[in-house]
Each structure stands twice: as structure tokens, then as C-alpha cells.
């Protein structure tokens, strides 16, 4: 009995009481309210989370996304360390325009040269691929997917064509291929910047004779595979009469009015795009007499002034004739 009383006293001193019906209260101990309050206090101190400070930002300090992108681009230009002779001249300020690079006959080996000399460069992708569909009826896509058969399985690869230009006489095209879509697009854009070239613009249409550089001065042709693309000057306000993918190149090149004619298998978009670029490159290869520069409004490369497109509204008589032809055309 003395031992039992001594155990009960020890348990009471520790703050626990034995349960009823138990021989010893060592294994089945209940907690006192004082201990529960102490435990809750410790838990609150451990789990205490500092509230975040709310900082009021004025509207003047908010930077728009476009300005932020421009600042990042300028920082990249400052961090750029050129490796070629032409790159060092561009960064030092000896060469200020892309026309000087072409006149000196240098080959572009760094994309930063184009970024510095042509800051307003824009880009677009050509729809060269096609999704799965019956009888070739799938929707057109930017990436063209191909597969290589191996013992390990099918290895897919993606390819795409990118076009860059400043809408003022400078345009370039590039091809990129990789195992994933994003690296293929980056390769295509990089190659397009390295392949930029100048074009010659003017007004060679006998229906216009305005003397401005909204079209091309003369007819040119380009061929790739079975596809032949013929580009002809059009009067002001006519717009771009060409396939949709060719229009992307014309807009980035700065051509607003144009007639075109395409021969061959035009479903092969890659050949059609290459033929269009070869036709544009012929504009600078043809020699033009100085007497025709002012008459045709010939301009080589960039002018610094973007030509505003003018849409030509058809007359009511022409609309009636078109409606009649549509009614008579059963197919």
C-alpha cells in the first residue's frame, strides 16, 4: 500500500492522474488544463507566420511591357561581345546602317549585328506543315513533322520557315529543323536574320506612274523545283494579289501593291517561298539607268519612311458585273 500511495503522489506531482480501473497510471496519463494551455502557446509561437508588407506602387513607376522589352534588348546589346571584324565595327559605331555592310561585301555571322542596325525588325512563320487529315485535308500548321524509322522506334523531327523584315526594303528568310518545336523556331529566326538582303522598290505600272515606291519597278521571276513565281508591278491601291504565304514576305519587305502569277505544284509551300525570295533578289541584280530612277521612283533598301497602303474601292458597275458572273457560274 505504501508503494501504491507513493506512486500516486509522484504522478500528482508530475501533473497526471491515473485512470479509474487501472492498476498503475504511468501508461494512461491525462493532461491538465495548464499543460494544454502551455502546449497551445508553444505551437502558436512555432507556427507564427509574418504577414507580408503591402507596398503601395504609384502609377508613374509602372513600366509597360513594351518599354520593358526594349530595355532588356538594350541591355543584351551592351553585354554583346562581337567576335567578327564587322561586329566590332558595328558596336564601335563605324558602321551605322545595314546598307554599308552590303556595300562592303561582308557576310553576316552574328545575329546581334542585325538587331543593332535594324531595331524595328519583325518576324513571321510560314505555314509549311499540315495536321493529320483524310485525303490531305488537314489544317495547315507552322511546323512540318517528319519521322525517322529506327530499331528503337520512331524519332520525330520538326522543321519550319521564318521570315523577318522591317517593312522598308529589308527582308530575310531562314529554315530551322530540330527534335522539338521551340529550338526549330529559334534556328529558323536566327538563320533568317543572317540571310537578310535589300530589295529594290518603285512604281513600274503603266496604270499608275505616281513615282512612289509602293510596288516593284519591273517584272521578275524566280524558280525552285517545279514552282515558278512571277511578280509584276501593280497600280497604287490594288493591294497584294498573291498567295497568302507570299503576302507575308511582301508585307515584311515593304511592298504594298503587286500582281503575281504562280506555275507548278504550289502545294509544296517550301518551293513556292524559295521561288518568291529568288524573284525578290533579282530586283537588285538588274541594272537600271539613272534616267529611270526618278521616273519609276526606284529606291534601294530602306528609306526610313513607311509606305501607307491605300485600298482601292471598286466602282458600282464592276460590282454588278461580278455579281452577274457569280450567278452564271454554276460551279
Summary of the model, kept short:
This protein has helices spanning 2-14, 33-46, 65-79, 85-92, 98-104, 111-117, 181-194, 244-253, 269-285, 291-296, 316-328, and strands at 122-125, 129-130, 140-141, 144-149, 154-165, 170-178, 197-198, 200-201, 220-224, 227-233, 240-241, 258-263, 299-300. With 331 residues, it is an alpha+beta fold.
Secondary structure layout:
Blueprint: H1 2-14, H2 33-46, H3 65-79, H4 85-92, H5 98-104, H6 111-117, E1 122-125, E2 129-130, E3 140-141, E4 144-149, E5 154-165, E6 170-178, H7 181-194, E7 197-198, E8 200-201, E9 220-224, E10 227-233, E11 240-241, H8 244-253, E12 258-263, H9 269-285, H10 291-296, E13 299-300, H11 316-328
Parallel strand pairs: 11-12
Antiparallel strand pairs: 1-5, 2-3, 4-5, 5-6, 6-7, 8-13, 9-10, 10-12
Tell me the total number of β-strands.
13
- What Rg do the Cα atoms give? 36 Å
**Alpha-beta content class:** alpha+beta
Shape, per Cα inertia axes:
elongated
In CATH, what is the class of the domain at 200-300? Alpha Beta
**The CATH topology of the domain at 200-300, please?**
Ribosomal Protein S5, domain 2
Summed over residues and divided by their number, the pLDDT gives a mean of 79
**What is the second-level CATH architecture of the domain at 200-300?**
2-Layer Sandwich
Distance between the termini: 115 Å
Order of helices and strands: HHHHHHEEEEEEHEEEEEHEHHEH
Fraction in beta strands: 15-25%
Instruction: Please give the share of residues in helix.
Output: 25-40%
Amino acid at each position: 500500500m505504501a508503494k501504491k500511495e507513493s506512486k500516486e503522489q509522484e504522478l500528482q506531482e508530475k501533473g497526471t492522474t491515473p485512470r479509474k480501473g487501472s492498476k498503475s497510471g504511468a501508461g494512461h496519463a491525462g493532461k491538465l488544463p495548464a499543460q494544454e494551455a502551455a502546449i497551445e502557446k508553444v505551437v502558436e509561437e512555432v507556427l507564427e507566420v509574418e504577414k507580408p508588407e503591402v507596398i503601395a506602387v504609384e502609377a508613374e513607376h509602372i513600366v509597360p511591357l513594351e518599354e520593358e522589352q526594349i530595355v532588356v534588348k538594350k541591355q543584351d546589346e551592351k553585354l554583346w561581345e562581337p567576335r567578327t571584324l564587322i561586329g566590332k565595327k558595328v558596336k564601335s559605331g563605324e558602321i551605322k546602317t545595314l546598307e554599308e555592310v552590303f556595300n562592303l561585301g561582308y557576310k553576316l555571322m552574328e545575329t546581334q549585328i542585325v538587331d543593332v542596325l535594324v531595331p524595328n525588325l519583325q518576324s513571321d512563320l510560314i505555314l509549311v506543315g499540315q495536321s493529320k487529315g483524310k485525303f490531305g485535308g488537314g489544317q495547315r500548321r507552322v511546323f512540318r513533322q517528319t519521322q525517322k524509322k529506327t530499331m528503337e522506334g520512331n524519332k520525330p523531327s520538326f522543321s519550319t520557315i521564318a521570315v523577318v523584315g522591317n517593312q522598308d526594303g529589308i527582308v530575310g528568310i531562314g529554315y530551322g529543323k530540330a527534335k522539338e518545336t521551340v529550338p526549330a523556331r529559334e534556328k529558323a529566326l536566327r538563320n533568317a536574320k543572317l540571310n537578310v538582303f535589300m530589295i529594290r522598290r518603285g512604281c513600274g505600272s503603266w496604270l499608275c506612274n505616281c513615282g512612289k515606291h509602293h510596288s516593284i519597278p519591273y517584272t521578275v521571276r524566280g524558280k525552285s523545283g517545279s514552282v515558278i513565281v512571277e511578280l509584276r508591278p501593280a497600280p497604287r491601291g490594288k493591294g497584294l494579289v498573291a498567295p497568302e504565304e507570299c503576302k507575308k514576305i511582301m508585307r515584311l519587305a515593304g511592298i504594298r501593291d503587286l500582281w503575281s502569277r504562280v506555275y507548278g505544284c504550289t502545294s509544296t509551300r517550301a518551293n513556292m517561298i524559295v521561288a518568291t525570295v529568288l524573284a525578290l533578289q533579282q530586283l537588285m541584280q538588274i541594272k537600271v539607268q539613272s534616267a529611270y530612277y526618278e521616273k519609276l521612283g526606284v529606291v534601294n533598301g530602306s528609306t526610313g519612311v513607311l509606305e501607307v497602303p491605300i485600298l482601292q474601292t471598286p466602282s458600282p458597275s464592276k460590282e454588278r458585273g461580278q455579281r452577274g458572273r457569280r450567278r452564271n457560274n454554276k460551279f
